[in-house]
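Schema walkthrough. Field components (list of strings):
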Amino acid sequence: EAGVVQSPRYKIIEKKQPVAFWCNPISGHNTLYWYRQNLGQGPELLIRYENEEAVDDSQLPKDRFSAERLKGVDSTLKIQPAELGDSAVYLCASSLEGPPSYEQYFGPGTRLTVT
Amino acid sequence: AQTVTQSQPEMSVQEAETVTLSCTYDTSESDYYLFWYKQPPSRQMILVIRQEAYKQQNATENRFSVNFQKAAKSFSLKISDSQLGDAAMYFCAYRLGGSQGNLIFGKGTKLSVKP
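Field assembly_structure (string):
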């Protein structure tokens, strides 16, 4: 079974430039998450999708961040324009919601550096 | 709001020895799950072990076991017979039960294994 796929693995951009990250979840997983992990910190949720619907985007900075999950499969997270403080690892995870554990499977992440 | 605290930024263990990583959490809920994730330098978060709050028995997965003290809100991870491949960041995480819960992570503990 293929895991969660993310691309690119690394991205370096100048501030004020746009950037996009792509995620393909595990086949059949209806829930998809985007997390941001700052250096030396644990991941923090940005947005959670159940199928095509964004059910929790309370932590997404909506002035510059946007996300979409068309057809309830893969997803794109965009930042426009990027700021220096956006440098972080962006992790995507997916799960098949339900007991017993709601286990989330993570992708390898995209390391973003904004210069 | 739920919080997760890992008070040990770094830990070190000799190969083949045992090490315990600490985690405390704060919640007023009774239905929740607790997890330990491992994040090696490759950045891929890997689930190590999970514990359902309603279960009194401590979870065990091969060399990994937990000490779940519900009243004290403590959830420590014990790694027995440590191996060089265990070296990584370890994150404790909390998830509210039901379909609305999101993972809340601690700041992590960096584990080094000495040969």
